[in-house]
Amino acid sequence: MIRIGLGRDLHRMAQGRRFLLGGVELPSDKGELGHSDGDVLAHAITDALLGAAALADIGELFPPSAPEWKDADSLELLKGAWQKVREEGWRLVNLDCVVSAEKPKLLPYREAIRASLSSALGVETGAVFVKGKTSEGLGPVGSGEAVEALAVCLLERTDTPKDSA
Ligand code: MG
Fold first, then answer.
1. Is pLDDT at 105 greater than 60 in this prediction?
2. How far is the CA of 34 from the centre of ligand 1 (A)?
3. 19, 33, 63, 84: least buried by Cβ within 10 Å?
């Protein structure tokens, strides 16, 4: 059995915050505002994986009202969610993502982001892809007020639930 999952997130950009995408910090005068570290890509991927397994959404697992998730490392949240999905007997076939941000250009950081995400998920780099898009100056993303990420994943049922990746 295979299952598809979709995740989407958007964060406001603010001065004095780190701009994190998939656990990689990009040079920027602004970064994502959030209760956690704000890593918009990690959040979208977390929701895609959880959704494919019909388990929960990121806000249920890691409520923004909970003090324990204040400034949380979103890659650790992703790992925690992925562990729950794997325990249900799912394997990641592939993950594809789009990040919409006006700047900086994502391409120079793409391989680092792919490496970071594939390491966190325990999969080959070839199973993870990320693309950067601008919004042509339009809307909150185009003005640099916000950054958005979309993620789609394919999960496949394994015969060995609870195995370690
Ligand atoms: Mg978020």
1. yes
2. 7
3. 63
Cα of 43 vs centre of ligand 1, distance in Å, is 5
Token pair for 80: 């925690």
Query: At 114, which CATH number?
Result: 3.30.1330.50
- Give the pair of three-digit tokens for residue 143: 């003005």
Average pLDDT over residues 89-93: 97
Beta bridge partners of 19: 26
- Could you list the residue range(s) of the whole structural domain that residue 62 is in? 2-164
Give 21 Cα–ligand 1 centroid separation in angstroms: 11
160 CA distance to ligand 1 centroid (A)?
31
Ion ligand 1: protein residues whose beta carbon lies under 5 Å: 9, 43
| Residue 83: CB atoms within 10 Å | 13
Q: Which residues are bridge partners to 91 per DSSP?
A: 156
d(CA 26, CA 109): 8
**pTM, whole model, 2 decimals?**
0.94
Per the structure, the count of domains in the chain is 1
pLDDT in tens, 35-80: 999 999 999 999 999 999 999 999 999 888 888 888 889 999 999 9
